[in-house]
């Protein structure tokens, strides 16, 4: 048993999402969104480096020493998997570990809107899940992939850095590929995937032009592609995808994306105030013919209006979802205000509304 495993056991027992180990500081856990110090001595750089290197593969240590940061997956059988990130900072080495539960929660257990599990039955197209780091994108996608795995008879390929949720093949054959371990890059894996008879492809992060281009191509040639981006709304997601391309290619990509896109889910995570735990507010855009026309005609500024009028298709604006959680008493007015797009809608719920310079 590695020395660091005691921290992972504590993390699991406390229900923490992240473990922070930083040279020159006490260890800390992220509990329900907040950083909480562990009653333990301040970590020495050499001691921490030795502790971290004990669980890191040799090739990852080499990459870390050459570049100053590295990602990989670590598993304690019977406990959980962890997404590890080592990085160098002013006082020495540091690391953050995100816990990935062994048991994949279903869409129903997560309380996802009913339209989301239906995305697992789409025959083809692009579905993008967006939001800031730590907003639960991977958990949402895992539930949708699990739905497909249980109800379809297809081939699913996941491409991640590192592999997070591990799906056991059920109705589908599921192959997990890790960037840096099983393939050189997202783009290389995507190019290879098109020759590997996939029906569903999960792209852990659409982080560059080549990966985004290949994902759109795969979605346009009969595959169902799920991917993630770090954007804050459905409309901004569409704009971000298009703006990655050179100006002279954007008109063509706009048309291709309009044909291929099926849904965009933008989500934000909130602390529950009624009980322990967290919940997600989601903006949902379903690509109806009218929405596709807006994308094709470069009228993405009208997407929010289309979402408002598309409730019968399962669409909803992020601020409406936040308001629903606030009215249920699940989240605090302060956090609702902080994470809303239209903060004016939530000022009336605050005991002492701030003089927010961003509203000026």
Summarize the structure.
Helix content is about 35%, strand content about 25%.
Provide a descriptive summary of the structure in words.
Helices cover 34% and strands 24% of the residues. With 360 residues, the chain is of the alpha/beta class. The chain folds into two domains: 5-100, 2-Layer Sandwich (Beta-Lactamase), CATH 3.30.450; 107-345, P-loop containing nucleotide triphosphate hydrolases (Rossmann fold, 3-Layer(aba) Sandwich), CATH 3.40.50. A seven-stranded mixed sheet has the order 9-8-10-11-7-12-13, sandwiched between helices. Strands 3-2-1-6-5-4 form a six-stranded antiparallel sheet, covered by helices on one side. A hairpin with a 3-residue loop joins strand 4 (69-76) and strand 5. The radius of gyration is 21 Å and the shape is globular.
In oligomeric terms, what are we looking at?
single chain
Enter the CATH topology name of the largest domain. Answer: Rossmann fold
Structural class designation: alpha/beta
Largest sheet: 7 strands, mixed
- CATH homologous superfamily placement of the largest domain: P-loop containing nucleotide triphosphate hydrolases
End-to-end C-alpha gap: 56 Å
Number of helices: 14
Unreliable residue stretches: none
Shape: globular
> Looking across the biggest beta sheet, what order are the strands in?
9-8-10-11-7-12-13
| Rg for CA atoms | 21 Å
| SSE arrangement, N to C | HEEEHHEEEHHEHEEHEHEHHEEHHHH
- The top-level CATH class of the largest domain is Alpha Beta
Strand content: 15-25%
The domain tally reads 2
Descriptors:
six-stranded antiparallel β-sheet; Rossmann fold; 360 residues; 2 domains
